Fold this sequence. Notes:
This protein has 355 residues and is of the alpha/beta class.
Amino acid sequence: MGNLGISAWYRAPMGGLQENIRATALHARSENFDVRLALPFGPFRDSLLAQGFGVIGVDFDCEKSLGEARDYLAPCNVLHAHPGPSRQLLLDLSAKTGAPLFFTVHGEWVDSIAQYADRLAHVFCVSASIRRRVHSLIPACHDRISIAPNGVDFTHFAAPSAVEARTIVVASRFDADKRNVVDLVRLMWERQAAEQDFDVEWIVAGQGTLIGELHEAAESLYSNAGKRLVAFDGWITSPQLAKRYSEASAIIAAGRGAMEAIAMGRPGIAVGSGGACPLFDMPGLLAAAECNFGGLGSAALADLDIPSLWTSLSSASSGGYADFGREGSAFIRKHLHVDAINARMFERYRDVLSA
């Protein structure tokens, strides 16, 4: 048993980074770790408080607030940081208390890791492509770099179910770092209008600063179809998203959302800050897993064959690729189950503590 202190900084109120942290915290509690978190004020902090975690809100621009966070996390004998100002908070605390510091890299932004790599107990990378990038920057630390991908919580995202409607779910944040998601959805809607394929309907789950562009594009699709084809859900919970996937036939989703959809047997397209990964067969799924389902190493949107991609997506929305849906779900359960991933990560914690 240990005392785990986690800190992170982010601009978006919710998203994949936050769900990665939640998964770590939940697993820590199941392993009898005492968990303390220092996070920005906002809905994610509030949701963890509602789950019974000890969380202190931090203003990373305020030295008084940072001091309070350091005092709150000082009893922790394991520290876990994520990129951004929170990393410096835990570097300072680790130097003061001697607690080992673990660090997770989520994407192309490696946060000047070469400057402090010798002070990290271990570096987790959420994909093989990110691990290669990190290793190229700190090759001497190769034995302290491993892959800890985002995982799927199968308590929410269950086994495949039958397709009932021609509905495609789009799940993501819609902010500047997810520009590719917005652009790809717009391209798909333009192609849908060009093909006059107006039996396909859409549900958009998520929120962000670019959501207005999707509202405008949905109005353009409406003017072509003569009927409304797009419904906007805003932010929804994991159980609500799982219900949407169960009712859908295909997806366009970023990172973890794409993994969760594949776990439920739904083909489609993973798209994120790095590019896009078609998910209609096992080679595509294996390639997507290498680059965190739309992250670093994915194909650029400019390199995609948009007409062919729409043909595949339209076919998927009609129940095509059912065999792949079952194979993909089995792959996610075997290789990307959140419990197994976190268990390996906590083995690293214990190895360092025992040393």
